[in-house]
Amino acid sequence: MGRALATYASGDQLGLLPVVLPHLEAYARQHGYQLVVADPDLPLRGRSGHWAKVRILQELLGEHETVVWVDNDIVLRDQGSDLLDWMCPEDFQALCMEHGRAGPAPNTGLWALRDTPQAHAFLRAVWEMGPRPDATLNDQATVASLLGFSYLPDRTRPLNPSRWLAGTGWLDPLWNTLLVHHPHAGVVGRGVHFGGVSVARKRMLMSQQIINDRLPGWETLLREAEAE
Fold first, then answer.
1. Number of folded domains in the chain?
2. What residue ranges of the chain have pLDDT lower than 70?
3. CA 165, 90, 107, 73: dihedral to nearest 10 degrees?
4. What's the pLDDT score for residue 215?
5. Which of 51, 83, 189, 223 could form a disulfide with 185 if both were Cys (CB 3.0 to 4.6 A apart)?
6. For residue 174, how far is the Cα from the chain centroid?
7. Contact of 191 with 110, CB cutoff 8 Å
């Protein structure tokens, strides 16, 4: 069945794919993943595009033994390390813990799952629970809620017991370092997450990161930057 590295974009975020895909393709080749770029027209039953990852993960887990989701605004700086080496063998899923001003919370921008009954049950629970009232982070708020955390815009912290926590592991947080919270992310992060800014600014910042780190695709991005 093998392993998959998956991402997705729709609408104006489709413009991020030419920036991010060359280095994701190189990462997938080096570490034995099949790179999957999901259909931008995936039916979501009236939900926002943020919910596409849940549907995509459900589908891919039936075809692969392990699936790693990567948001289209994450740059994987550490091309030499396999992030699954940070996932414990007994866990059905692993995420990075986000540490922002509001407190600690699971971040679904980088999300690894194994093809187990528990993983399928968790994804089903996420979809069935749906968007949380007044939440600002879509599927991420629902995942946080199921794991016993409060969610933005309120202060985030672990509040409630959760039956899912025993099988949930935590990756090195440097794999998903949000630049909006950590200005040094572009220097120390294994993966830099450019969430929280406009798509145009994401494209610029991601291009700069890839050029600075000489990641696959940097020459093309440099030529484009010099031509502007």
1. 1
2. none
3. -160
4. 98
5. 189
6. 13
7. yes
Rounded to an integer, what distance in angstroms lies between the CA atom of residue 179 and that of residue 176? Answer: 9
The residue written with tokens 């994701």 in the block is: 24
Do 24 and 70 touch, CB atoms closer than 8 A? yes
Report the pLDDT value the prediction gives residue 221, as an integer from 0 to 100. Answer: 96
The single-letter code of the amino acid at 163 is R
Q: Is 122 helix (H, G, I), strand (E, B) or coil?
A: helix
Distance separating alpha carbons of residues 154 and 158, to the nearest angstrom: 12
Token output for 23: 């280095």
Q: Is the pTM of this model over 0.90?
A: yes
Structural domain range at position 172: 3-227
- Side chain identity, residue 226: E
CB-CB contact of 82 with 28 (8 Å):
no
| Residue for token pair 């590295």 | 5
* CATH number of the domain bearing residue 117: 3.90.550.10
CA dist 228 to 20, 75, 223, Å? Answer: 19, 22, 9
Cβ–Cβ < 8 Å for 182, 130: no
